[in-house]
Please model this.
Amino acid sequence: MIEIGKLRNLGPLDEVNLKVAGISSADQLLEGFSSKKARRKLSKATGIEEKKLLAWVRQADFLRIKGVGPSYAGLLEASGLGSASALGEFDAQDLLDLLVKTNEDENQVGHLPGLSELEGWIDQAKDLEELVK
Model:
């Protein structure tokens, strides 16, 4: 279980607001707020923008893939991928090219995954249910 504060671009005040709302883990965020309606309600309750909530829900979704931690989840989300299951549609080399470009632009991680690791992620993603709506 990944603590909510480990997600990328989630500041201390946001973490406090989410914990006050009863959300302390990435799993809780994904399970309870994968729908737009639920995020809208959480946004009103916490004062956190829906756009930020969606980014964190997407990161939590990527964490379902074995080998993806908070840093890689942040990189995948910053690369424009909408969900973990969408990863299953990628070619490993195309995904690597996208991650390299995003990392060059935003300096998200110190070390990029290799092609074989990405192939493993893609294979796992093919079996995942679409959760983020």
Summary: The chain has seven helices and no strands.
